[in-house]
Write a structure and sequence with these properties.
- The chain is of the alpha+beta class.
- It has 9 helices and 8 strands.
- Strands 1-2-6-3 form a 4-stranded antiparallel β-sheet, with helices on both faces. It has a two-stranded antiparallel ribbon with strand order 4-5.
- Helix 1 runs antiparallel to helix 3.
Length: 225
């Protein structure tokens, strides 16, 4: 448990937090750890709210040229630096072949998906993210995963399915092309500058809601603008 606490302190320097972890079982296909052997443990790294944003912005301003995916690049750099200190292998949600980050997260934190696909957190609502993970070839000790109330089950009105101007999200799935066309089009200005209306309509975790400039950054990246 001590190493997990030390990692948490190292991540805090970047506005990041550790998001729980798990020990791989016999039925898991574990990715390689730092020395090329199958990992025994994974510790997830992420954020709550927009805490990493000032750290990311300072890093971005110091770059001689902006990379194609600056937030991914920053995340890889800072989580990789922490991995070196603690003898881990850093991996990213955008690595290919893709690793099962969402399944790891559900096991590590006891979360379930919202109707938007984002995992619903009992404190952060939809305003959180996973930026990477640390793989270890030893078994780390994690606290017991507490059973969490799934807030979506308690939400009667489901405003997250009623606020999009083109009804991109529904109980049958996500109309990706419809959403993308709207965000890129002349009537999508509010979505581009203030974020997804369905996500913003969720009544939970509002204290962690990303500021408009952060949401605009993510929407621009999503729309390829």
């Amino acid at each position: 448990m001590r190493i997990v606490q030390n990692i948490s302190a190292a991540l805090a320097a970047y506005g990041l937090i550790q998001r729980g972890g798990l020990v791989f079982g016999d039925g898991d296909v574990a990715p390689d750890g730092p020395a090329g052997r199958p990992a025994r443990s994974v510790l997830l790294v992420g954020q709550a709210g927009a805490a990493p944003w000032p750290h990311f912005q300072r890093w971005r301003e110091a770059q001689p040229a902006s990379p194609d995916n600056p937030l991914d690049s920053w995340s890889r750099e800072v989580i990789g630096a922490v991995a070196l200190v603690f003898g881990a292998r850093a991996v990213s949600p955008s690595d290919k072949p893709y690793l099962p980050f969402q399944q790891w997260a559900m096991r590590a934190e006891g979360l379930r998906p919202s109707p938007l696909g984002i995992l619903m957190h009992p404190e952060y609502g939809l305003w959180h993210a996973y930026r990477g993970a640390l793989l270890f070839e030893v078994e780390l000790q994690f606290g017991e995963v507490r059973k969490q109330s799934h807030l979506c089950d308690l939400c009667v009105g489901k405003p997250c399915l009623k606020s999009c101007p083109v009804s991109a999200y529904s109980e049958t799935g996500f109309a990706y092309e419809q959403c993308l066309g709207h965000v890129r089009g002349p009537s999508g200005g509010a979505c581009r500058t203030q974020g997804c209306r369905d996500r913003n309509a969720c009544p939970y975790g509002t204290a962690y809601r990303y500021p408009d400039d952060v949401q605009a950054f993510h929407m621009k990246s999503y729309a390829g603008l």
